[in-house]
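Entry:
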Amino acid sequence: MKMAALFAALLGSQLFVIPVSERVPELKVEATCKATTADDKANGLALPQSFADCMRDETAAQQQLNTVWGAAPNSLRDSCEGEATSGGSQSYVDLLTCIQMAEWVKSPSSATRLRGASKTRNSQ
């Protein structure tokens, strides 16, 4: 107890708290990656995703979330977190995708427009 008080006194005004809602939630993605790998193998996919590749994708998504999380409205963060953790699986990729899709819906003009097949597209 005395050590904690001394530590806090030494830090003084440098001590700050980040509200939980301002941080990207800590998700347990290992179970999701294990299940994904097992499902891919069980379904006989020619190129099943490895556990390492899944974890790499999840880590990359978590890093991207660190840059966009604070700018997202609380209601969107709550909604997307619920979606990304539903059914017992947890995924930073799902969480990031949810936030990106909501941002795209809000301002679709900044997104790359997709062009479908057209008989006359290349003749213009």
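The radius of gyration is 21 Å.
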